[in-house]
Design a protein that fits this description.
The chain has 248 residues and is α+β, with helices and mostly antiparallel strands. It is built from 6 helices and 8 strands.
């Protein structure tokens, strides 16, 4: 199969492109790029039930960005099919963890094309969006760490995922029948969330000051000080999320 996003070839059994991370089409089908294709049915029903109340509304949300560190180097160690298998499993872990806490995946992508951008608080409204995002991040961190140990043991590969969280307001413009959400965010807001993830140490979870203020009474945090991130106008205060507070 050819990826509709980047044109790379992948084996028919793979769900994601090993080059850019895009969802692939089944043989003879259209690319499965709609959120409806991979959102659990029960969660999809809840989103469709309440979507009309969201249209045009300002919502405070938390963005979770996760990306596989060094994913582009995997192809130098193993074949394309093995890379796709690894990314398929990684995306499955990421998806399950986000949906478990009622988050919604906006896209499968990242700086290296091997991660996700997810929102908590829209299109499914949850006032505890930052807490849900933290719980999801801790859950993902544990499962991905275990998967990384498995890959080191069985394939001799170094594998780790970095996770960044950032909270703020967006305006939900529309939620379509396919669950795709269109939104308006302040300039650079999503980019800042991605830059936080990029600055995160291997296997860690970093939070912006905005997210830290919302969860500091419930989760252990370690202040990391100011970081120069991307196009941010000034230093950005970051915090590391500890390991206590993960709930099943």
């Amino acid at each position: 199969m050819l990826c509709a996003s980047c044109g790379a070839e992948s084996a028919p059994k793979h769900k994601f492109c090993h080059e850019c991370g895009a969802l692939l089409a089944p043989a003879g089908g259209k690319p499965q790029r709609n959120p409806q294709e991979y959102t659990p049915l029960q969660l999809a029903d809840k989103i469709l039930t309440f979507r009309s109340a969201l249209k045009g509304e300002q919502r405070c949300v938390t963005a979770l960005v996760a990306d596989v560190q060094g994913s582009l180097r995997l192809s130098e160690r193993v074949g394309a099919d093995d890379v796709a298998d690894i990314l398929d499993r990684t995306f499955q872990i990421l998806s399950d963890g986000v949906y478990r806490f009622e988050g919604a995946i906006d896209r499968f992508s990242g700086f290296s094309g091997s991660g996700i951008l997810a929102f908590f608080g829209a299109p499914l409204v949850n006032d505890d969006h930052a807490h849900r995002a933290c719980r999801a991040a801790l859950c993902l961190s544990g499962e991905l760490r275990a998967y990384g140990c498995e890959l080191r043991r069985t394939r001799g590969l170094d594998f780790a995922v970095r996770i960044g969280l950032h909270s703020g307001e967006i305006r939900v413009d529309e939620v379509g029948d396919d669950l795709r959400m269109t939104y308006t965010a302040p300039e650079g807001w999503v980019g800042l969330a991605e830059h936080i993830q990029q600055a995160t140490e291997s296997g860690s979870i970093y939070l912006s000051q905005d997210t830290a203020q919302l969860v500091k009474r419930c989760f252990p945090l370690r202040a990391l000080g100011p970081f120069a991130l991307g196009d941010a106008r000034g230093p950005v205060q970051l915090h590391e999320l500890g390991l206590r507070g993960a709930e099943s």
